[in-house]
Automatic annotation (TrEMBL):
SUPFAM superfamilies: Glycosyl hydrolases family 6, cellulases. PANTHER family: 1,4-BETA-D-GLUCAN CELLOBIOHYDROLASE C-RELATED, PTHR34876. GO terms for molecular function: hydrolase activity. Its EC number is 3.2.1.-. It comes from Streptomyces mutomycini. Residues 1-19 form the signal peptide. The keyword Endoplasmic reticulum does not apply. The lineage of its organism: Bacteria, Bacillati, Actinomycetota, Actinomycetes, Kitasatosporales. This is Glucanase. Belongs to the glycosyl hydrolase family 6. InterPro entries: Beta_cellobiohydrolase, Beta_cellobiohydrolase_sf, Glyco_hydro_6_CS.
C-alpha cells in the first residue's frame, strides 16, 4: 500500500478487525442525495450559483454526519446505509456525538449527555448499519486536542472510543472504522500514535486525517506515514489511513475556521497516497461563527462560500 511503503518490511499492517472489504462489496461511493449542498441546489434552481454547486459539490460522494440531531440513531444510520446498499454504493458515515465533544475548541461543543449515554448511542449506531457495507469516521477532533483536559477526562474519552470499536466489531462486520487522528499541525506523530493506540486503534481498520481542515494531501500523507512509523516502532503494527480532501485544493493559509481563498480538493476515491481520499466535510458548510462564515453556526450551508470554493477565491 502506498501509505505504508516507507516502513520496514518487518512491520506488516495490523490486520483489520474485519475480514470483509466493503470497497469490493460495492460499486463506487454513495453520493448523499440529501446533503446540505444537494438540498440547497434543489431548493434554489433559479440561483446563478446552483448549477455550479450541483455539478461540483452536490453530486460528489461525501460523508453524512450523525449526532444528536439525527433522531433515533439506529434508525437513521440504518436508513442511510440501507439507501446506499440499495444502490450498490459504499456510504461514508461520521459518528460525531462523543460526550464532551470539542471540549477545548468549543465551536462544535455538545455530544451525548454522559459516557453511558454515548455508549448506548454508538451501540445503536453500529447496530443500525449491521451487515451492510460502510465506512465510518469515528469522532472527529476527539484525539486532536487534549490541551484543556484532565488525565481523568482523557482516560474517559479513550475508553469511550475503545468501547465504540468493540460495538462496531460486534455488530457491523462489513464496516471499516477509521479513528480520527486530527491533522499534521495539531499533535506530533509520536503523540498521535500514542493517543490512537491507547484509544484502541489496533481494533480499528485505520485512522483519518484532515477532517474539516484544509491542509494539502501531500502534507497529510507524510504525517500519516510518520504516525505509522511511530506505531511500528512503539507497538509493532501499522494501519491504513484516509485523508479528507473536500476543502484542501488550495492548501491551508494557517486558519482553520472558515478561511477565505480555499478550494475543493480531489473527489472521493481510493488511493492517492492514502488508502482513500474522502470528502468528509461538505464544502460550503460553516466551521462556526468566524472568518468568511461570520454570523453562521457550525454546519450551516453557506452557498456563497461553497460557490467561491469551487473556483478557489
Amino acid at each position: 500500500m502506498a501509505a505504508l511503503c516507507a516502513l520496514p518490511l518487518a512491520f506488516a499492517a495490523a490486520p483489520s478487525a474485519h475480514a470483509a472489504d466493503p470497497t469490493t462489496m460495492t460499486n463506487g461511493f454513495y453520493a448523499d442525495p440529501e446533503s446540505s449542498a444537494s438540498r440547497w441546489a434543489a431548493a434554489n434552481p433559479g440561483d446563478g450559483r446552483a448549477a455550479a454547486i450541483n455539478a461540483s459539490i452536490a453530486n460528489t460522494p461525501m460523508a453524512r454526519w450523525f449526532g444528536s440531531w439525527s433522531g433515533a440513531i439506529g434508525t437513521a444510520a440504518g436508513a442511510y446505509a440501507g439507501a446506499a446498499d440499495g444502490r450498490d454504493k459504499l456510504p461514508i458515515l461520521v459518528a460525531y456525538n462523543i460526550y464532551n465533544r470539542d471540549y477545548c475548541g468549543g465551536h462544535s461543543a455538545g455530544g451525548a449527555a454522559s459516557p453511558s449515554a454515548y455508549a448506548d448511542w454508538i451501540a445503536r449506531f453500529a447496530g443500525g448499519i449491521a451487515a451492510r457495507p460502510a465506512v465510518v469516521i469515528l469522532e472527529p477532533d476527539s484525539l486532536g486536542d487534549y490541551g484543556c483536559m484532565t488525565q481523568a477526562q482523557i482516560d474517559e474519552r479513550e475508553a469511550m472510543l475503545t468501547n465504540a470499536l468493540v460495538e462496531f466489531n460486534r455488530q457491523a462486520p462489513n464496516t471499516w472504522v477509521y479513528m480520527d487522528a486530527g491533522n499534521p499541525r495539531w499533535a506530533d506523530a509520536a503523540t498521535m500514535a500514542r493517543r490512537l493506540h491507547e484509544a484502541g486503534l489496533r481494533q480499528a481498520h485505520g485512522f483519518s486525517l484532515n477532517v474539516s481542515n484544509y491542509i494539502t494531501t501531500a502534507e497529510n500523507t507524510a504525517y500519516g506515514n510518520a504516525v505509522n512509523n511511530e506505531l511500528a516502532a512503539r507497538y509493532g503494527y501499522t494501519k491504513p489511513f484516509v485523508v479528507d480532501t473536500s476543502r484542501n485544493g488550495n492548501g491551508s493559509n494557517g486558519e482553520w475556521c472558515n478561511p477565505s481563498g480555499r478550494r475543493i480538493g480531489t473527489p472521493t476515491q481510493t488511493g492517492g497516497g492514502a488508502e482513500m481520499l474522502l470528502w468528509i466535510k461538505t464544502p460550503g458548510e460553516s466551521d462556526g461563527n468566524c472568518g468568511v462564515g461570520s454570523g453562521s453556526t457550525a454546519g450551516q450551508f453557506l452557498p456563497e462560500v461553497a460557490y467561491k470554493m469551487i473556483y478557489g477565491y
